[in-house]
Amino acid sequence: MSKTIAINAGSSSLKWQLYKMPEEEVLAAGIFERIGLKDSIVTVKYDGKKETAVRDIADHIEAVKILLDNLTSFGIISSYDEISGVGHRVVAGGEIFKESTLIDDEVLAQIEDLSSLAPLHNPANAAGIRAFKEILPDIISVAVFDTAFHSTMPAVAYRYPIPNRFYTDYQVRKYGAHGTSHYYVSREAAKLLGKPIEELKLITAHIGNGVSISAVDGGKSVDTSMGFTPLAGPMMGTRSGDIDPAIIPYLVEKVEGLNSAADVINVLNKESGVVGITEKSSDMRDVEDGIAAGDKNSILAHDIYVDRLKKFIGQYFAVLNGADALIFTAGVGENDTETRRRVVEGLSWFGMTLDPEKNVFGYAGDISTADSKVKVLVIPTDEELVIARDVERLKK
Length: 396
Known about the structure:
- 37% of the residues lie in helices and 21% in strands.
- It has helices at 60-73, 105-113, 122-135, 155-158, 164-168, 179-193, 247-254, 261-270, 273-278, 284-292, 296-320, 330-335, 337-345, 383-395, and strands at residues 2-9, 14-21, 25-33, 40-46, 49-55, 83-90, 101-102, 140-145, 201-207, 211-217, 220-224, 325-329, 365-366, 375-378.
C-alpha cells in the first residue's frame, strides 16, 4: 500500500489530502486558512472526525511542520515512513515546465527562480517543498504546475502586443494559473453533461482568494485570465486584477512611500482587490456581512467584483464563439450563492438561467433550469487528486 500526500499551497492557505494509492482513498484531509494573519485556522478531517484549532501561523514552513505533527499525533499514520510520495502544487512553471516533474535540487532552484512570475505563490510552494525535503528527504517529490494546462494556448492568446524581443529574449507572455483546477473541473463537467470532453466548449471560473477564468475548447485551454503573473484578470481577494499599467509610474511619482514599481506591485498583490475597497477584509463572507449591515465600501467591493467576473466570462463566450456550460469552482465559486446569482443574471443574454432551488449553499451539480441554453454547473475542485495521480504516474 502506498500513501501519497498532495499539497496545495495558496497565498494564504495550505490544503492537503493524504491518499491510499492507487485506490485514491482519502485517509485524511485538512486546510490551513489565514496563514500569515492573526487567528489562523487549522482543520484536520480523518476517520469521521474533525479537529479544528485557531492559532497564529507565521508562514507555510510552520504550517507544514504542524501538518506532519498532526498526522502522527492524531494516529493517522504511525510514522513518516508510511508516506511514499508527496506532490506539490506549483503555480508558475514558465516556459520551462509544461508537465509535472520529479523534484531535485535543480528543479527546486528553477521553481524559486520563477518566483517573479508568481510572487505570492512560488516562494510559498518552494518553502513547502523544502520543509518536506528536510523532514522526509527520501520520498518521491513531484511538482505539478498550474501553468502546464495552459501550455496549449495559441500565440494569439498568450502573446502580448509589445515588441517581439520582450518575448524572445525575456519570455514575457501570458502563462495563466489554476491550471490543475481548470483541468479537473472541465473533465468532471464532461462526465456531468454526458458528452466527450472533445466535443465541449466550457468556461471554467475558479473563484477563490485568487480568481481566474478559462476558455476550454475540446478539453484544451485556449485562453485564461491570469497573465504573466497571477496578478492579471478579474478583481481578487487582495489583488487588483487588470489595471492601466500607466498607474504604476504615476503612483511612484505621487505617493510617498512608494519608491519603485516593485513597491506598487506589492500593493497591487497584497493590499488591493476586495480588501483594498472594503478596507477591512479580503474574505467574501465578511463582505456579505458588511453588505447586510449597509456598509458602502462592502457594497461597492461586491459590485466591482461581480462586474469584473461578468466581463471576463463574457469575453470567453466570444473566444469560444459560444459555450456549452459555465462552471463555478473554488471557495467563492462553490459556496457563494449570491455572487453566482448576480453573475449569471448579468449574463442572461447568453441564455443562462439559474434554478433558485438549486443555487443554494452545499449543492453541487447542474444549478441551471432545464431550458437554460448554457448550463451552469457547480463542481467542487479537487486539485489534490490530480496531484496525487501525477505522483503515482511519475513513481513508476
